[in-house]
TrEMBL record:
Residues 76-190 form the TonB-dependent receptor plug domain. Residues 1-27 form the signal peptide. Keywords: Cell outer membrane, Membrane, Receptor, Signal, TonB box, Transmembrane, Transmembrane beta strand, Transport. Residues 479-958 form the TonB-dependent receptor-like beta-barrel domain. InterPro entries: Beta-barrel_TonB, Beta-barrel_TonB_sf, Plug_dom, Plug_dom_sf, TonB-dep_rcpt-like. The keyword Heme does not apply. PANTHER family: PTHR47234, SECRETIN_TONB SHORT N-TERMINAL DOMAIN-CONTAINING PROTEIN. It comes from Duganella dendranthematis. Belongs to the TonB-dependent receptor family. This is TonB-dependent receptor.
């Protein structure tokens, strides 16, 4: 039986079951309703209470739980949901709620201000986005009050830093597929920020802090106000927030960590050629104090008879210290070293430590909600949200040139001794590498995201079928402007022209190229530590560097209805249904030098035409391109909770069914569905749950409409190298990713023999097919040769005229993912008054165990890679968060432990020291494949010194635990901020005021 047939059978059985129970309910309408006293508390979730220290919540008529669209009393959802209350978030005392939520074990792979600091063009710099299960932010749906929020970049990912955080009263984290309830992108789950819509009074929060290294100074100011008018019919709330985290600046070149962080030791891999691994020794070796031998800080001759000559102050030559006892061979290689690293020696040119550990980030947020009760049953409301997030960072100092420069021996900046050595060795030029340590400024990137979001809606309730039904409807327009401006970035061709200098007849020095000279070329001396003149710097790195300007818009219209259809002998049947229309669009523009500039006609005063430049891609990094695109979505869903059992001996059970039909303007129709069940057994406090679902992620704007880029390249085709035109574009033929989620769980919820204890254990199994991924040109050619007709359609090879050959590089639905694991959550609350002691004690723990995370790229010659336990990634085998709190009416203390298990650099490595097998591309050998984990301890406390004011403190990472070394093959970074704390011990103090 096929998967499709199986799914259809399941849905038919579910619908048949629903119809049967409707018939039973209709036949038994005379049955007395279940007494309210028998219902479960409405605030019940499927996980232990987030704030067990709080008094029991008042039971309301309906409660909306984020794992479902159904709002009902006594309904326990099958999809696990972890809840963080306002008190939980306050105890964490983070300047940005994103950081508190990202610590949850199920959140893996989130991006923040410590990630992507080595990137100029990733598009996620300074973006606070949440990722569940390591599936990436694009597969986690982040909502505000159950509503979508306009994306902060072209992948559609939201920026939590733009949310009104002081008014958040709880955050629901749904750790399971929720596409049938909420739509596209909820493959990993949903994170829903719930605000206090009827807040009254005034509250404020002021806090500040810094690290133990006296950097990353931060401050936060927040205020919120709310009041009811017109006999409690008009409700107005407003909040403003300002936060600044100043970041951790780059120390520049060399093996030096910022402000005394001595843990940075230039970690890297030494990688021997595959052909040399038949000697029984491993191919990979982890090293520290790695030294590139292809460049030095101020310049190094890297080939020929003068190899090993470096240049220092005022261009004076000296013998370079390679480390490892390395001796240059004159061929570009160095004995005792493995390309491209030696160990030790002159480490001054290393740029790995030049990346900011944390970005300088500023948040400015304003929010208001105005609600008017037309009558006691119906409200209309308006919300406006403005959020501006600015960040700044340095991805690396200088602009390293790895032995890829050619310096002519007649260059007038060369010392006389080197010119003479050229003549003596009968050479006219040599290869050269430099980190360009003499540059007056380091590259600095300035992303700014500004959101403007307006929502007009209505909600209320009305009688239907003799019961109370509720509705909510809204229209939304969200616009996000993203500007990325890069300063002190060099233009490659101008740099090349400027360093190729000659001496003219009048004794002056000029650029060798007459064309470049006529266009304003100013020569530059890269031989040693010689200051760069202002005129030279203005030519090589003009004031107006790479720029990208994006306007992204989201329009939404949504209507949802839910209520109790009628009661059966087993309990009420609850329904939810709704429809939504959504339109997503974007327009992005890059600067002319990056996107494309004419060489003969001026087109921009800031970026004048220059014959030296290429048609596009002129910057050292940050070549942004123009693009635009739009798509729309229409969808409708139905969800039902059907009680199927109510017995004194067997307990209570219910089914939860959902089905959603979605039509994308680009890819057509797709269906998502959910079938879940919960059973509150007859055993005291024991509940079982299970859910299976089909979830979807539609291709985003970037994947559909990626900016076109055309470059020349070469591929291997039918045994010959073929010159091609490589055309990189979006793919409007992409289909949605389809996921199958399965969750099985057991819950022990406050049994009578342990009334303060709750625990849950949930096993999850997620398969994602048709994963959208981008291949390189050679991989596409290989797949075409292997018989993939879809990919063959995007290329033309073997033409008689070689210039007609092309390969279109774009995204395809080729990859797949499979992950399995389980979540454990437990909490215990103890009131100490039973022992004549003050206060309450709360113990809580959350743990995620990743059993497997297989990714199959679909590329010829590869095998599925295992990501679970790969600590260079973001899915460790174990991730945990535990806390112990003591609370009184006046004081509180909270101790928190965060930990990740040790792992491997890669699960594909074969670890061996001697008698190693011959390495392969798929399974390389490595000397030591162990990467240590981390254990962090945090301490926080509060003192309520008046009825309205509370002082607090927080110390994160008390032990100042260093991050594990994360070796790379290019020494570009050396740490993994996706898993490890790279900032160090942090102190924060503050005050909260609530009137």
């Amino acid at each position: 039986m096929t998967t499709q047939t199986t799914r259809n059978t399941i849905m038919r059985l579910a619908v048949a079951s629903a119809c049967s129970w409707l018939a039973v309910a209709h036949a038994q309408q005379a049955t007395p309703p279940t007494p309210a006293a028998d219902a479960q508390p409405a605030a019940q979730t499927d996980t232990p209470p987030a704030s067990p220290t709080e008094p029991e919540a008042k039971v309301e008529n309906v409660v909306t739980v984020s794992g479902s669209r159904i709002a009902a009393r006594g309904f326990s959802q099958p999809t696990p949901t972890t809840v963080l209350s306002a008190e939980d978030l306050a105890k964490n005392a983070k300047p940005n709620l994103f950081n508190a939520i990202a610590e949850l074990p199920a959140l893996q792979g989130s991006t923040g201000r410590t990630t992507s600091t080595n990137s100029t063009s990733s598009g996620i710099q300074g973006l606070s986005s949440l990722s569940l299960r390591g599936l990436g932010p694009i597969r986690t749906l982040t909502l505000l009050d159950g509503q979508r929020v306009v994306g902060a970049n072209v992948t559609g990912v939201t920026d939590v830093s733009q949310f009104p955080q002081l008014l958040v009263k709880r955050v629901d984290v749904v750790t399971g597929g929720a596409s049938a309830s909420y739509g596209s992108d909820a493959i990993g789950g949903v994170v829903n920020f719930i605000t206090d819509k009827k807040f009254e009074g005034f509250k404020a929060n002021v806090e500040g802090g810094q690290t133990t290294y006296h950097d990353d100074k931060n401050g936060t100011l927040q205020a919120a106000w709310g009041k009811a008018f017109l006999d409690d019919r008009l409700h107005v709330t407003a909040s403003v927030e300002y936060g600044r985290e100043k970041g951790i600046d780059s120390p520049g070149f060399g093996e030096v960590g910022p402000n005394g962080r001595s843990w940075y030791k230039n970690p890297a891999y030494q990688v021997r050629p595959l052909s040399a691994t038949n000697d029984g020794k491993p191919q990979y070796t982890f090293i520290e104090h790695a030294q590139q031998y292809q460049y030095a800080k101020y310049g190094l001759i890297t080939n020929g008879p003068l190899q090993g000559t470096a240049f220092g102050v005022n261009g004076q030559p000296y013998k370079f210290n390679y480390g490892s006892g390395g001796v240059p061979t004159g061929t570009g290689a160095v004995t005792g070293c493995v390309n491209p690293f030696c160990v030790g020696g002159d480490l001054s040119g290393s740029v790995g430590a030049g990346t900011n550990l944390a970005m300088d980030l500023t948040r400015q947020v304003a929010y208001t909600r105005v609600g008017f009760d037309i009558n006691p049953d119906h409200e209309i409301y308006f919300t406006a949200n403005f959020g501006k997030v600015k960040s700044e960072f340095t991805p690396n100092p200088g602009a390293a040139k790895n032995a890829n420069l050619t310096v002519q021996c007649d260059n007038p900046y060369l010392p006389a001794s080197i010119a003479a050595a050229c003549a003596a060795n009968n050479i006219t030029s040599f290869q050269y590498g430099t980190a360009n340590g003499q540059f007056p400024e380091s590259i600095n990137v300035h992303p700014t995201r500004e959101m403007r979001r307006l929502v007009l809606g209505a909600d209320g309730h009305f009688p239907l079928f003799g019961n109370d039904w509720s509705y909510d409807a809204y229209v939304e327009r969200g616009i996000n402007f993203t500007d990325i401006i890069v300063h002190d970035m060099t233009l490659n061709n101008r740099y090349t022209a400027a360093i190729d200098a000659v001496r003219l007849a009048d004794g002056s020095i000029a650029c060798r190229s007459l064309t470049a000279r006529a266009a304003g070329c100013v020569p530059m001396n890269i031989i040693g530590n010689v200051p760069v003149s202002a005129a030279t710097w203005a030519y090589v790195a003009p004031e107006y560097g790479p720029q990208q300007h994006t306007r992204q818009q989201q329009d939404v219209g949504s209507f949802n209805l839910n209520g109790e259809a009628f009661k059966t002998w087993a309990g009420p049947i609850n329904w939810a249904t709704g429809a939504e229309w959504r339109r997503e669009s974007y327009r992005v523009g890059g600067d002319p030098y990056g996107n494309g500039v004419s060489t003969d006609t001026p087109n921009d005063a800031k970026y004048p035409a220059d014959p030296v430049l290429n048609p596009m891609n002129n910057w050292y990094a940050g070549n942004y391109h123009n693009a635009s695109g739009t798509y729309n979505v229409r969808e409708a869903y139905v969800e039902a909770n059907l009680p199927v059992l109510k017995s004194d001996g067997w307990g209570e059970a219910s089914l939860n069914l959902a089905d959603r039909h979605t039509h994308y303007s680009t890819s057509g129709h797709v269906e998502s569905w959910k079938l879940g069940a919960t059973w509150k057994t007859g055993i005291d406090g024991l509940r079982l749950r299970a859910v299976t679902s089909q979830d979807v992620r539609a291709p985003n704007l970037s994947e559909l409409y990626a900016a076109p880029v055309v470059v020349n390249a070469a591929v291997l085709y039918q045994g010959a190298n073929v010159t091609i035109q490589q055309r990189t574009v979006g793919n409007t033929a992409l289909r949605p990713e389809i996921a199958r989620n399965k969750i099985f769980g057991i819950v022990l919820d406050r049994p009578s023999w342990a009334p303060g204890f709750s625990a849950s254990l949930d096993y999850f199994d997620i398969k994602v097919g048709g994963v959208i991924s981008t291949l390189n040109a050679q991989q596409e050619v290989d797949l075409c040769v292997a018989g993939n007709k879809e990919i063959c359609n995007v290329m033309s090879l073997g033409n008689a005229v070689q210039t007609n050959n092309y390969v279109t590089v774009q995204s395809f639905n080729l990859a797949s993912m499979r992950l399995k694991g389980y979540d454990l959550e437990a909490a215990y609350r103890l009131n100490l008054k039973d022992w004549n002691l003050p206060g309450r004690v709360t113990l809580r723990g959350l743990v995620t165990r990743n059993i497997t995370f297989l990714t199959d790229s679909g590329v010829v010659g590869t095998i599925p890679s295992e990501g679970a336990g790969n600590n260079l990634g973001n899915t460790p085998r174990w991730k945990g968060l535990t806390s112990q709190s003591w609370d009184t009416d006046k004081y509180s203390l909270t101790l928190t432990e965060r930990w990740i298990s040790s792992g491997k650099y890669s699960n594909e490595f074969i670890e061996c020291q001697t008698n190693c097998p011959v390495s392969t591309v798929i399974h390389p050998t490595i000397y030591d494949n162990h990467m240590k984990g981390a254990f962090y301890v945090d301490l926080g406390g509060t003192w309520k010194f008046s009825d309205k004011a509370t002082a607090f403190f927080k110390v994160d990472n008390i032990g100042n635990v260093d991050p594990a070394a994360a070796p790379q093959t290019n020494l570009s970074y050396g740490i993994n901020p996706a898993l490890y704390d790279v900032v160090g011990r942090v102190y924060r103090v503050g005050m909260r005021y609530n009137f």
